TrEMBL record, chain A:
InterPro entries with a match to the protein in the record: Aromatic_CoA_ox/epox, Ferritin-like, Ferritin-like_SF, PaaA_PaaC, PaaC
Protein name: Phenylacetate-CoA oxygenase subunit PaaC
One matching Pfam family: PaaA_PaaC
Biological process per Gene Ontology, one example term: phenylacetate catabolic process
CC per GO annotation: cytosol
UniProtKB/TrEMBL annotation, chain B:
Domain of life: Bacteria
Gene source species: Fulvivirga marina
Protein name, UniProt field: Phenylacetic acid degradation b
UniProtKB/TrEMBL annotation, chain C:
Any one biological process term the GO annotation gives: phenylacetate catabolic process
Keywords: Oxidoreductase
Example GO molecular function: phenylacetyl-CoA 1,2-epoxidase activity
Pfam hit, one: PaaA_PaaC
Protein name (database record): 1,2-phenylacetyl-CoA epoxidase subunit A
Amino acid sequence: MNETALKELLYKMADDQLIIGHRNSEWTGMGPLLEEDIAFSSMAQDKVGQSHALYQMLHSLGESEPDTVAFTRNAEQFHNCTLTELPNGEYDFSLIRHFLFDTAEAIRFELLTESSYAPLAQLAKKIQGEIRYHTMHANAWIKQLGSATEESVNRLQTSLEKALPYALGIFEPSPYEQELIAEGIFAGEEVLKEKWISRITEILSQTSLQLPDLSTLKPEFGGRTGQHTEHLQPLVEEMSEVFRIDPGAEW
Amino acid sequence: MESLDPRVNRLDLKGFQGNLTRKAPLDQFGTFEVFIQMKEGKPYQHEGIVHAPNEEMAFIFAKEQFSRRSTCSGLFVVETRNVFVTDFTEGEDTIYNYISDEFPKEGDKEEYEFFHLMKRGKQHQHVGSVEARTPQEALALAKPAFINEKPVFNAWVVKTSDILFTSEEDKHIWDTLPEKKFRDASDYKASDKIKAFKERNAG
Amino acid sequence: MYGGGNTFESAKFEGLENEDPQKLAEFEARIERGEKIEPNDWMPQMYKKQLIRMIEQHAHSEIIGALPEGTWITRAPGFKRKLALMAKVQDEVGHAQLLYSAAETLGKSREQMIDDLIEGKSKYSNIFNYPAFTWADSCFISWLVDAGAIVNQLANARGSYGPYCRALDRICAEESFHLKYGHHCVIHMATGTPKQRQMMQEAIDRWWGPMMHFFGPPDKVSVHTEVLMKWKVKMASNDECRNQFLDMYVPKIWELGFTIPDPNLKKNPETKKWEYTEPDWDEFKRVINGDGPCNAERLAVRRVAEERGKWVRQALLTPKTKYVTPLA
């Protein structure tokens, strides 16, 4: 098995889950209503938990311990897509990102249930229930707010347009696409993207939101190769502020 | 004022000052009662309420508020105003002593779910369902089965069609719950560390 | 998380002369027998008022209590701590939800309660008006403030009002994780590097005063408190709770080699009671009346959260469902 290709895939997935989980956790205690505050926090925990499982998988392939990997790298060593690192903004942006990202994440894990790399296929199967809840949550919110008041529709539409180029960055091709596909590790970003487009289109068509012509948008690539927005380095510094007081200490 | 919480600094508290309007009175969502089944085969039990704009959201909210710990195999929600509630009794007095055998006889038959309170201070639990035309008829039909049994202090009757149940395909949303050890006290054992610390200091 | 103390003092105590004597006698007999009062049961106005006040303050303490620890939510060191702190702060929000619901069964809507909180009309536990300067402060809160809250909540869970007791049973079960997690964190700080020990000792020094305040000033014995105790609204005196806390946790702090900033703190072997320097009750009053280090920030954050969430709530509001009082 092409380990370099596999590791590249695992790193970008793990980093995606960690960074979006971290961002979503910023809402805890400050959400728009108590019940939603709780639901959003649970999903953030799921994502951080999933990132840990993926770093653990990398550790078994010879990489450093999950804590070391997550808490001691600098921004340019992260492979998350830039969508995940953008600041939370208002709830409309957080929800749109949640919808766009989680739809892709759900399809990615669905595809990975067939992966020739057994530990990954196993993980993908195990967390299907968690992911099902995440997309259930995202779809319900987008469908409801996307066809509610003028304000909610406008807010979501603006956020959708802002987020889409970054969301297309999720599918930035890996240098190892062919190897991953050939070895049956992963069906590839292009397949994922096509399925994603049809699924978000299906949900958005049930709302008053307009999906722009995606072919006219320039995807925000770079995240997968460590070229991030200015928002990631401060996030990483904040996340590891205590850890870095003494990375050798047990906290 | 700089906060110690970086999240709070990002909220830009100053931008909001003086810009507060009191909410319209009671712009609050509806009330939904939440019932949980911990394991297959166990009765559904009342766990509390959520406020939500509709039953789909109520289900989504209830799932994390009431089943993020331990185990869960099913959940349902029903809007509070769709629950028919009897009076309360106490001591050895069952509520079925007060159920009239007379009831309105119009309407079509529908299924009704029953929930009993067997001990004051505890939760209502699901006991079964009957087909009836009205909640009063449902209670009257249930009466012979319960009147000579352990006292029931309060009963709730809900039309089955008013309830949003977990669908079969959604049942695996709880699959990984038992693995979320970070929410479990048993994952935080450190007595070895204390022991080693004491020994080090004594020696 | 909730202490005691300030709940009852300023509520005007109204006489019972307007209550139906027969119903009052039945009500008191039911409590005497150890049975719970449920929302539909007859209850004296004073009972209802005091319960709303107490449960509401408890709920506010949970939602505000999410903020001092939340200070460190994005900075928790390592996966284990990150996941646990996220889950713990989430629990505090969840506890607020449970408690607001319990108070709602008595006829005050959640929205009215939250309005009263952000307009500064309601109180919450004083300790959350203090800042969490370092990670060690969040460890102190997770372990010892939660420990204090559990002492108080376990007492209240034996009270007479069914919905409040059910909420507390659930809360206490969830908080067993908080307590263990908090202790686990403090143990790691204690047995870690000199820097970690120093951080932890400084946090203990900072938080000891507010912790002693947490249970409230010594109770004045009045007809009022006697009635509330008879009705099982107030279950233990502030001093009893404080003493129980000291008894359970001072030895655990000492065994980790930390000092407590009170030279007079010791257990009297004869009375079996703890002796200590009276905390500064003037400071307690000042902070409760709004002049603490973080009062303004805590309320501002809640206001902004409410304000920023307004469009979401308004968008979803529909006449198809209706707000009603919860059943239980």
